[in-house]
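Quick review question:
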């Protein structure tokens, strides 16, 4: 087995930062009516700026392009595009059902034949891509891996994606208001990509050794909380988009991203803290060993509650150990943890020997990924 190091990090955030007041002008008003949820959601999530792959009403990048632009930040005179042995990409918003997201990214790289892996899901898709690369380098299957997390959520959130549902509601003489489970996420998600280079030797001024990675799923106990491409039935099962009539796809906004907020609040923090406790105990790590916590939280609303949930499990990680950039880059789903790692590596805060704990929850059907890193 080989040691595995994050030797370089890259990111790409499209266009200029978008303020809270600019959001609805870009995403549009559904039924020409200002969202009643927007101010409430923004007040709770604490995000003040984010990035969209849309400018002046024009889509500027697809997901594969965002990912490729982040990967290009990894190249230098020591490591070029022709040195990549494995490309492992995670996203919840691929540009197409197939070919895979990784294949579409590889198609932009203009390098050589290499191994591909595509991880689907929601926020943990990026961590799953990272773990595939970690295990490949650790086992000696490859000597390096480029791992990515990326999202292009903005185009899912455009008002015109919901207009047919509004027309249908009017025809049924119902209130032409999109359900909160759909409108809520329009003010939460944004675009961007992060990339990490994994190698079996440290390089440069700072490298991060991946000590271990652990993942947990609770899908055997709980129904879906965040979903798209279907709708939840009364029994909790999701009816897939293929089982709807084609005209229903638009009438019911079947492809819209939806989230069951009640399920989210009840389980996401409790199970996240439980999973963290299991992972730390398995590897003999205590809270005093951790110098920085990098938690992916979708909203600052959950930050203090996460601290309390961890404390209930006997894990005390005070605020001065937390490193977050949610307020400035937004919730970028599977890319968020990559953007945090890139920013802390670039910040020059890190000292050799320090330990980082990464926690990524996924509310899709409640999955959690946790990683422990050492600064080298």
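Suggested answer, residue by residue:
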């Amino acid at each position: 087995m080989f040691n595995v190091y994050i030797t370089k990090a890259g990111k790409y955030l499209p266009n200029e930062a978008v303020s809270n007041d600019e959001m609805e002008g870009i995403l549009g008003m559904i039924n020409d009516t200002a969202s009643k949820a927007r101010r409430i959601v923004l007040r709770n999530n604490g995000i003040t700026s984010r990035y969209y792959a849309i400018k002046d009403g024009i889509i500027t990048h697809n997901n594969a392009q965002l990912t490729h632009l982040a990967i290009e930040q990894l190249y230098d005179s020591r490591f070029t595009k022709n040195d990549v042995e494995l490309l492992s990409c995670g996203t919840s918003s691929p540009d197409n059902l197939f070919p895979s997201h990784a294949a579409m990214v590889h198609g932009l790289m203009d390098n050589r034949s290499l191994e591909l892996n595509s991880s689907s899901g929601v926020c943990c898709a990026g961590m799953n891509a990272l773990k595939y690369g970690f295990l490949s380098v650790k086992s000696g299957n490859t000597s390096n891996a480029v791992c990515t997390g990326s999202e292009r959520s903005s185009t899912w959130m455009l008002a015109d994606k919901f207009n047919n549902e509004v027309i249908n509601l009017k025809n049924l003489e119902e209130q032409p208001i999109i359900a909160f489970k759909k409108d809520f996420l329009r003010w939460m998600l944004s675009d961007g990509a992060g990339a990490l280079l994994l190698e079996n030797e440290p390089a440069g001024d700072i490298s991060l050794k991946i000590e271990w990675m652990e993942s947990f799923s609770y899908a055997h106990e709980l129904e879906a909380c965040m979903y798209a491409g279907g709708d939840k039935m009364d029994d909790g099962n999701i009816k897939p988009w293929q089982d709807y009539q084609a005209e229903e796809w638009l009438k019911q906004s079947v492809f819209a991203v939806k989230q069951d907020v009640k399920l989210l609040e009840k389980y996401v923090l409790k199970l996240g803290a439980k999973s963290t406790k299991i992972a730390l105990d398995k590897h003999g790590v205590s809270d005093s060993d951790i110098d920085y916590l990098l938690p992916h939280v979708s909203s600052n609303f959950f930050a203090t509650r996460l601290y309390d949930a961890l404390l209930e499990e006997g894990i005390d990680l005070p605020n001065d150990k937390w490193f977050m950039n949610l307020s400035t880059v937004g919730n970028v789903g599977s890319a968020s943890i990559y953007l945090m790692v890139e920013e802390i590596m670039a910040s020059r805060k890190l000292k050799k020997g320090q330990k980082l704990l990464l926690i990524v929850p996924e509310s899709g059907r409640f999955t959690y990924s946790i990683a422990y890193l050492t600064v080298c």
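Why it works: The longest strand covers residues 208-217. The chain has a mean pLDDT of 94.
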